[in-house]
Amino acid sequence: EAQVTQNPRYLITVTGKKLTVTCSQNMNHEYMSWYRQDPGLGLRQIYYSMNVEVTDKGDVPEGYKVSRKEKRNFPLILESPSPNQTSLYFCASHEDSPNTEAFFGQGTRLTVV
Amino acid sequence: GNSVTQMEGPVTLSEEAFLTINCTYTATGYPSLFWYVQYPGEGLQLLLKATKADDKGSNKGFEATYRKETTSFHLEKGSVQVSDSAVYFCALSPLMDSSYKLIFGSGTRLLVRP
């Protein structure tokens, strides 16, 4: 079954404590991306990766890092989380074409206190 | 720049009512257009798409037509069901953008009552 798996689903943390949200896909897609979803704003792209070791900033990259050491995995790293990063995060993957369907993970709800 | 504007929700309908959710876009060039649906507690799923002007995307009774002249991609369904209750997102993919990102509208929550 085609799947994008994110972990954890829910996370409450304190300001400044480093955390990583994992993302894995089983479709051999080259393109992966992270979005955050906030009320009234829809989803906004944080970072994307076009292949292994190729990553770039999206529209709201401040405070986030990513890595792409393997094709299937694309973790999102918050080195020093702040309350304004409280949000719902989605990982997505699709084939190397803008016309193709994006497959989304189930989301990670992060609260930073 | 590129942007998507959707009608504000929530939209509350009775079962079997007709649904329209408006979506207009601003883009350079000719983007691909999508509707994604998010059921409670789940990620987004592609509902339908259209890749060029006058294309009609359809799936599960939902339809949307790519209207270049009005820069619109309105979602319609003739008879909604309780199971259609979800948040619907209109999105575009600007073909000239190497990031292949999706640009989303703010989402419209649909609630269908029995």
Give your account of this protein's structure.
Chain A is an all-beta fold. Chain A has strands at 4-7, 10-13, 19-25, 31-38, 42-51, 54-57, 65-66, 76-78, 87-94, 103-104, 108-112. The N and C termini of chain A lie far apart (36 Å). Chain B has 114 residues and is mostly beta strands. Chain B is 0% helix and 49% strand. Chain B has no helices and twelve strands. Chain B has strands at 3-6, 11-14, 19-21, 23-26, 32-38, 44-50, 56-59, 62-65, 75-77, 86-93, 103-104, 108-113. In chain B, strands 2, 5, 6, 10, 11 and 12 form a six-stranded mixed β-sheet that branches. The mean pLDDT of chain B is 93. Chain A binds chain B through residues 4, 31, 33, 35, 40-45, 48, 50, 56, 58-59, 90, 92, 94, 96-99, 101-102, 104-107, and chain B through 4, 32, 36, 41-46, 49, 51, 89, 93-95, 97-102, 104-107.
Topology at a glance:
The complex is a heterodimer of chains A (113) and B (114).
Chain A: E1 4-7, E2 10-13, E3 19-25, E4 31-38, E5 42-51, E6 54-57, E7 65-66, E8 76-78, E9 87-94, E10 103-104, E11 108-112
Chain B: E1 3-6, E2 11-14, E3 19-21, E4 23-26, E5 32-38, E6 44-50, E7 56-59, E8 62-65, E9 75-77, E10 86-93, E11 103-104, E12 108-113
Parallel strand pairs in B: 2-12
Antiparallel strand pairs in B: 1-4, 3-9, 5-6, 5-10, 7-8, 8-9, 10-11, 10-12
From the structure above, extract its key features.
heterodimer, A: 113 residues, mainly beta, 7-stranded mixed β-sheet, 4-stranded antiparallel β-sheet, 11 strands, globular, B: 114 residues, 6-stranded mixed β-sheet, 0% helix, 49% strand
Q: Give the overall shape of chain B.
A: globular
Shape of chain A: globular
Which consecutive residue ranges of chain B, at least 5 long each, have pLDDT under 50?
A: none
Helix amount of chain B: under 10%
Multimerization state = heterodimer
Helix content of chain A: under 10%
Number of helices of chain B: 0
Topology, number of strands of chain A: 11
Number of strands of chain B: 12
Series of secondary-structure elements of chain A, N-terminal to C-terminal: EEEEEEEEEEE
Mean pLDDT reading of chain A: 94
Major sheet description of chain A:
7 strands, mixed
Q: What integer value in Å does the Rg of chain A equal?
A: 13 Å
Mean pLDDT of chain B: 93
